[in-house]
Amino acid sequence: MVRDGGPPAGTAGAGVTGPADSGVRHARGPGAWLRWLLNRDRGWQAWLHVLHRLSGLVLLAFLMAHVCVTSTRLLGRGAWEAVMALTHHPLLQAAEYAVWAAFAFHGANGVRVLLAELGFGIGRPDRPVYPYAQVPQRQRPWAIAAMVVTGVLLLAGLLDLPALRDGAGAP
Amino acid sequence: VSGGRAWLVSMGAAALVLVLLGAHMATMHLNDLLGLGDVLAWTSVSERARSAAQTGAYVLLLGAAFLHGGLGAQRVFREWLAPAAAARVNRMLTIVLGALFVVGTLAAVTFHAGAGA
To answer: CB neighbours of A133 closer than 8 A, spacing ≥ 6?
Structure first.
């Protein structure tokens, strides 16, 4: 089974939870996560796996803040509008776009992972005749499709940014 | 929930989140492209809150998102941290996410009950 967006075990670029990807399981301690992040000895699927996890953490952090912010509506219209006024700040606009980007990537790549988990795009088991057909090779078109979807969503989000939208409409 | 069962729950929640969050993100972040106007205006927020279906979908999304996010984050922390530290962090995370789910649900339901007031 595929786990968390990583390649299946026993394939090139595998080792999502093993030493080839992270080294963390075998070298915990201060800085282990940094070694996990900066480990360059990975295939492209494992890089997607890393980005999937990072974007997931970004989205979870945003969700936690989002619940707190949206709960201010219980305090009435004044409180809600005061909080919403803050969201027009350029820094928060940039942060909102970063969340959109994380969502676009995490969603598109997540669909790829879900489909692979269900057995789509990983091929049937076949005889081990050289050159070996590997899952990462078969998954590459799916990954490219996911990145194209991510790119389209990023562009759509960019068009919706008030700074750009208002700037484009300015005389 | 742990192991293979956690993975299945996480995938099920992910499928739900994909649909509901996709609709939510498109509505809230592509509102100008889609011609939905100012979706964050108090009148728009109140109007959405009057709908029981939208409030229900919101609570469902909140639960699925916290479930998927919580299980995913716990898995990441188990990789990054030593077992004892990961257990502590994950216990704390479960409490915080549970509390936020209660707060978010109470806010949605209470606002729905008094929407427009």
So the answer is: A123, A126
